[in-house]
Every structure is written in structure tokens, then in C-alpha cells.
Specification:
The complex is a heterodimer of chains A (113) and B (107). With 113 residues, chain A is an all-beta fold. In chain A, 0% of the residues lie in helices and 59% in strands. By secondary structure, chain B is mostly beta strands. The chains are: A mainly beta (113), B mainly beta (107).
Chain lengths: 113, 107
Amino acid sequence: DAGVIQSPRHEVTEMGQEVTLRCKPISGHDYLFWYRQTMMRGLELLIYFNNNVPIDDSGMPEDRFSAKMPNASFSTLKIQPSEPRDSAVYFCASSSTGNYGYTFGSGTRLTVV
Amino acid sequence: GIQVEQSPPDLILQEGANSTLRCNFSDSVNNLQWFHQNPWGQLINLFYIPSGTKQNGRLSATTVATERYSLLYISSSQTTDSGVYFCAVAYNNDMRFGAGTRLTVKP
């Protein structure tokens, strides 16, 4: 398996633009997580899905953030409109029932200017 | 929510030395994992260890759930062990990460 695949690896965008981050979990994993990492706040859980259904989105910072998982092999995290304070590394991770060790993707480094 | 404290925040070792990293958590958990973030930013799962002891090569981990702490042991450290070590805990699936221990191994 190629692991958890995230795209793009780097994204630079202007304030006010829409940003879409993508994630392909490991085949067979039924949990998918989105995290954000910043120097100030460390690693924060934004939202997680089980069997494509959002279970807990209490970590989503505000309404500008949305996440979807239309099928078992794809998820998106969208920021609209983006702001400079959204600059961070966004990680996607997946795991499976019965084997709860997380596998992280390589992350997307987002810079909003 | 569950609070996670890691110590020490920073650790500098000479190659070949041993070390112990600690993770304290504030509430009962059924999921505890240790991760290594390498200098390139990649997060690697080291152990899934809600209780008991596990070993993988030079690394081992012990979790005493009743006393709410976990320890990560690194023996015969190598320069490639440098990076940040995170402990993450959850009751159910909302994993919360500690602030990490930054380890620097000098040749």
C-alpha cells in the first residue's frame, strides 16, 4: 500500500481564495482524521470520519472550514475564504477498527499571503 | 478534554546514550500512541500502547494506565533518532497530542 496520500504537498494562496486539500486513506481503513499543526497550538484534531460519516467536527475552527468524505477512498478539507492565520501544515491520518495505530500522510503546507 | 503533558520538552544526547521520555495524561484512555516527527516533518507511528509494554528494536514503551502515564525508552541513540516525539491519547477516537519532546542526538 502507498500509505496515506495527501495533495498538494505545498499550497500558497492569497487571502480570500478558496483552498481545497485532498486525502486518500489506506485502503480498508474505516477512520479518517484531519489535523492541523502550528508552532503556537501544536497538533490539533479538526474533524474525523468513521465509515465516511463525520463523527466529531468540534475542532473545526470556524464556518470557513468544511470537510467531506464522499467515499471510502477520498476526503477533502476546504477553507473558504482563506486567511493568513490559516497558514499551517494540515495532516490527514487513517486507522482501522481493531488496529488503531494511526498512519499519517506527508501533510500539506499551506501558506496564505 | 483530556490533558497530555510530556517531559522533558527538550533533550540533547550524545550518540550511543539512552533516554526516557514521559507522557502524563489526565483521564482514563483506551488509546495511546507514540509518534516520531522527523526533521522533514513526517509523522511516524512508533507504538499503539494503551497498556502494557512493547518493544521494537532499540525502542520500547510502557503504559501504566491506572497511574495515567506512559514511558518511551530509546537505547543506544543514533543521529537518525533526532526529531520530536509525540504522545497522543484518547478515550474513543478523538486523539489529543502532547506538546512533544524535541530530541537532538549529536554525533
